[in-house]
# Entry
Amino acid sequence: MKYAVPTALGFDESGPLVTWRAGDGGRFSESFHEDTLRRYRREGGAEATTSLEALSASPAEPTALIFHVSRCGSTLVSRMLAALPDALAISEAPVLDQILRWPGLADDDQRIALLRGLTGAWRATQADPPARLYVKLDCWHLFHLPLLRRAFPETPMLFLHRDPVEVLVSLMRQPSMTLIRGTVTSEQLGMGEAARDALSREEHAAAILGALFRTACAHRGQLTGLDYADLPEAVLTTAPGRPFTADEQAQMWAAAGRDAKAPEQAFVSDVADKRRAASPSILAAVARWTQPDYRRWTQG
# Structure
């Protein structure tokens, strides 16, 4: 099947399998990979299933992995990198999450083979294979950093972060899958299930942010930090890959001028609005559950 895109893992009587959907050979233009897959479904792209071995057939290493704490500019970064004519940017692909978390896989060695094969499969979706491949992960994938480092021992890793008060205001306004209890486990939070379940909505979200910063601190030597306050300029000097030409920088700047999640709209900073919207309960939750680890990360 031409330009087939791996979409999901599954299971039938023959064992584990992977589902593929025919693509069009072009760069993924949507802000999130799931939106690209929806477009292919609407356009009637053929679907097929194979054994898992087919996914690990052509391993490759990405140009960079992008970790983040959510609502911190990571989509902006991936949109800027996607604007490069020789680059492919993958943003929060569901099949990658399945490889990391699906209990149907045998062991970490199988996960590593599938992760490496997945990046090779993404390259093969393009009629003009990309010279650079950037992979933005879901925020909770930071907890899987050791496995991802084993899969991609040479790949640079970025870590996007933002003032936790601003992040928490955004998550309270528009909750994400991150906040579903179990997406981040109680073990990853560093507490028992009863303690986790006793947390308020704001406290739970703040505890997740704290755990993310705590994990980043534990792997500081593996991560290159990017602060939301330094975007978009910092992308031009920090993002891995060969130095960006003047034309490439112009294309990236143009992408940065649009809203990352709604590119038809111009970007408007929301920092002041989010600071004003921080309720006493949000401020208290951040002070208790996030601020200590955030300070450890930002102060080194």
